[in-house]
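Proteins fold. Shown next:

***
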Amino acid sequence: MLSRRTWEAALGTLQVEVPKADFAAWFRDTRFVGAQDGELVVAVPTVFAKETVERKYHQLVTRAIEKAHGGTVGVTFVVQGGPPDHAPTLTPAAPKLETRPAAAPGARLSPRYTFQRFVIGASNRLAHAAALRVCERPGTVYNPLFLYSGVGLGKTHLLHAIGHTVAEQWPDLHLRYVPCETFVNDLLYAIRTEDRGERRRRFRESYRNVDLLLVDDVEFLSRTEASQEELFHTFNAIYQAGGQIVLTSDRPPSEIARLEARLRSRFEAGLVADIQTPDLDLRRAVLEGQAAAAEVRVPADVIDYLAERVSRNIRELEGALTRTLIYAELNNLELTPTAAAQALSGLGRAAADRPPKPRNILAAAAQHFELPQDDLIGKRRDARTVAARQVAMYLMRNDGRETLPEIGRILGGRDHSTVLHGCAKIERRLRLEDGLKADLEAVRARLASGK
């Protein structure tokens, strides 16, 4: 008789035969639903998970079920969200930590950066598996975990995913996620204020009194000696208390300029894992997953075109699909490789074409945000105008390749430091806000279409 126990037994077989990272990504959140017409019905949480399991593991799953059942039997996968209620899980061992009152762990974590939405391939398998292992036994393995890669390859995604998973599995643990630039700025503020003794004490308490510290873009430490000194003592305090530390950077510890030897040795004491440029299969899988999450049917030839055209990083790849969808909608076009090529033709860094002109970027940003161009050049400081102005700054800098002083001149004679601040703010917000990413691609689509 087909039952929940049949699927549990099959999962036991799969857990042995499937790589650990793949099992955690595709099978951990499955659950038995029922039996129908001699087939086991199994629920998976997303459309993308269903497509992946059916494409890559169907034969393996069928054999595992037949082994558990003792006879020929089929399997049907259905999409049903939510965590499994009775499916077996890998129960984490109790961490060797002295728990403290939990803070609001998810306050600064992006809801879109989870393990369920992380697409696994040869280029990121080690980093993904290490991140999962840290969640199972925080503070006892791979401590610290140091992840590094180029821009947009997924290190920040994994950092947030660790935060989400630990917060869910270990609700009593106190965790903190922080971009390294914020850590440095918080320290400088504590040092420079009049009551710096009290603020320094509060600063140290807020960073050291945690069980899990997640620091993004740690290469920013090289800017000041004081920040390196503070992180060194923060690192020691958390580590000696049995806490877990996870760090990311755009380069390995050995290549971070002006990094003190004592910090470098600590960063390298655990596991250093890199994420490489995604291969073609992974790029296809990322696009398929993004399309499924958006509930949009994207033809296979469009997926293939985008995967072959954009190869440098995941962020650009996702942006290319978003841009294509918006461009096709604006111009009432079918989704075809030709439409995708037209949508991407205006990309400053990815195309060989001339970069978009600043005046065109300014006009496209004003149209998208429904504001007069004069407001972007002028002194208005309401939230919508500031957002549109900073988007224009960012696109002039990254797509238009203009210098900071030139951008400042175009935008009403602003100082280059103001432009730098605006570009940096957009870069930070892109990691957390899907809406901003859509705004950028919509402006780019207007530039490509000439509207």
